[in-house]
Amino acid sequence: MKTQNNFQHRFCVAPMMDWTDRHCRYFLRLFSRHTLLYTEMVTTGALLHGEAERFLRFNSTEQPLALQLGGSEPQDLAASAKMGEQAGYSEINLNAGCPSDRVQRGKIGACLMAEPELVAECMTAMQEAVDIPVTIKCRTGIDDIDSLEHLSHFVGTVARSGTHCFIIHARIAVLDGLSPKQNREIPPLNYERVFNIKEQYPDLEIVINGGIRTLDQAKQLLGKVDGVMIGREAYQNPGMLAQVDQEIFNSNESIISQEEVLEQFIDYAREEMISGTALKHMSRHILGLFQGQPGAKQFRRYLSENAHKDTSGIEILEQAGSFIRKNSTTTDSISQEALC
Question: How distant, in Å, are the alpha carbons of 43, 56, 72, 156 from that of 69?
Answer without folding.
Answer: 6, 11, 10, 21
